[in-house]
Amino acid sequence: MDFDSILDQRAAFNHKWVALPKDAGADGETGIAMSVADSDFRTAPVVLDAVGAMVEHGCFPYGADWDGYTRAVAEWQGHRHSWDVDPDWIVSTQGLGHGIAMCINTWSEPGDGVCYFTPVYHEFRLKTLRTERRPVELPLRLENGRYELDLDAAAAALDPGVKILLFCAPQNPSGRVWSAGEMRAVAEFAEAHDLILVSDEVHADLIYPGATHIPMDIAAPAQRDRTLTATAASKSFNLAGLRAGQMIIPDETLRTAYQRSLRMSDYGPGTVGAVATMAAYTPEGETWLKAQIAYLDDNRAVFDAGINAIPGLHSMRLESTFLAWVDFSGTGMTPEEIATRIRDDAKIAVGAGPEFGKGGELWSRFNFAMPRVRIEDAVARMQAAFGDLQ
Ligand SMILES: Cc1ncc(COP(=O)(O)O)c(C=O)c1O
User: Fold this and answer.
1) Where are the alpha helices (DSSP H) in the chain?
2) Residues 378, 326 share a domain
3) Chain Cα centroid distance, residue 331
4) How many CB atoms are located within 10 Å of the residue 180 CB?
5) Is the residue at 55 inside a domain?
6) Which of 98, 202, 235, 323 to mutate to test the pocket of ligand 1 (most atoms within 8 A of CB)?
7) Per residue in 338-353, pLDDT tens?
């Protein structure tokens, strides 16, 4: 399995590489795109074969008969996460961004609050704003280099107009894998404040040895009547551009409401995304995924060692995801100085910490899902850009 080849990412309309001139004043030769959360790897051969067979067949008609698709997703959840999912609970979406926006539209009104624990995936805030809702940040507490929930502080930040809690499990950024007890506490928090709980579990298949992801529905079955879980093969198999994701909704009332919203937006699954997901969720796909996780784990070690050797910088120990979360607070620099050095000196495009909400101001997120030589190059660039810090 090849994770070392450097592919022409611009040929794939790859957002983060296309945006590199704007984000870092560089091109694919002179800069490194470590911003958007997709990988630079070719996906699993079994997926390429399945999509290749569609291309060979030569036509892409309207699709029907999604039983194989929902069954593949259910079996994958059962096999990988011991979650007994009924295929009928699965509703396809055009990616999870779409799925989350549909939840916001279904269970709140413009002006209502949408809350989430920060620092978090910046799109939670953007989706809240785009749907004309109010972002309500619930800061996580940093304790011994790890994020912890502070549910008392979170409760104090709420008001009666807050209707929805977006929860990222595992957390992006920081790769925090929540325990069953923490997941349950979050669900009980949602119940106590009458919030619809959207558990975004898109990174759940990218877990490093030593950590275990527990789906929200297993951790908190008592709150099923207010919980929707978002999953996809997009991050783990590099399929984000196919725009296929799933909302898993055990509760029939919630599911009916969600499906009604989907109908009103005239959505239907796309065949290529469904076929690719089915192929990914096979034993061959899982073998490739395990090899990818091992490769990422080594990238993580190379990146962390190089970054932690720079005085004032610290890369958080990840339990999951390919998104390193680096603390620059030890440099004494402002967010602008940090961003300028990364962008103009290192010529690396990253996820700027302030975009991830409270607690992210002095941090940056680096996507390391790319060939190892690029990680070594990125580390050398960062050491040169921050080399005067002794
Ligand atoms: C936590 C989280 N949720 C959702 C998404 C976006 O999913 P999609 O590409 O399916 O819209 C991302 C992408 O980075 C993510 O990190």
Assistant:
1) 15-18, 20-24, 45-57, 67-81, 96-107, 123-130, 151-157, 180-192, 216-219, 234-237, 252-264, 271-280, 283-308, 335-340, 372-385
2) yes
3) 28
4) 14
5) no
6) 202
7) 999 999 999 999 999 9
CA–centroid distance, residue 96 to ligand 1 (Å): 6
Look at residues 371, 294, 289, 291 and name the one whose alpha carbon lies nearest to residue 5. Answer: 371
CB-count exposure of residue 111 (10 Å: 0-12, 13-18, 19+) = exposed
* Each residue's pLDDT tens digit, 30-81: 999 999 999 999 999 999 999 999 999 999 999 888 999 999 999 999 999 9
Say if pTM beats, i.e. exceeds, 0.90: yes
Q: Structural domain tally of the chain?
A: 2
Residues lining ligand 1, judged by CB closer than 6 Å?
37, 95-97, 121, 168, 172, 200, 202, 232, 234, 240, 245
User: What range does the domain containing 179 cover?
Assistant: 61-281
Residue 266 lies in a domain: yes
Decide which of 260, 281, 302 is a domain's last residue: 281
22 found inside a domain: yes
